[in-house]
Specification:
3-stranded mixed sheet; single chain; about 50% helix
Amino acid sequence: MEFLRAFRPPFLTDAERAQLLDGLAHACRHAGEPIGLIIDARASGEPEARAVSLFAVWEIPAAARPRAVLVYANAATRRFAVIGGEEIQQVAPPAFWTQVRSELQRHFDDERYCDGLFKAIAQIAIQLHFHFHPTLPEDAPPPIAAADSKPPL
C-alpha cells in the first residue's frame, strides 16, 4: 500500500492553491464573515477533532467567531471537516451542512480536491451572506434538496 501511495498525485498543485486563495478572498468579501481554509500536510487523527481545535485557536475577533466557518482538509489522509460558529450553525439549515459535506466527500472520492474545496467555500459564503448580510429582498440561499427528495425538474 505504501508503494502505491508514493505515486499518488499531490493533494493540490500550485495553480490549484492559487485558485483556492483567490476564491477564498472573494468568498470572504461576499460573505462579510470569516471563512478559513486550513490544509494540513501531516496531521493525524480525526479531522473533525483537529478542525475543532484549530477553530478554537483561529486568530479572529471574538465577535466574529460565532459566524465564522472553517474548512479543514488533511492532505495526507485525504479527509476533511467543516466547522461553523454557534450563530451560523443555528441559522443555516441542517440540510445545508449535510449537503456541503456530502458534495465535498464526493469530490474527495473522485480526487477532485480543489473543486470540492472551492465549491464548499462558495456555498458557505452564500449562506453567510444570506443570513447575516442580505442586501436585496430577493436574496435567497440556494435551494437545498433533502436527502430523500427528488431534484426539481
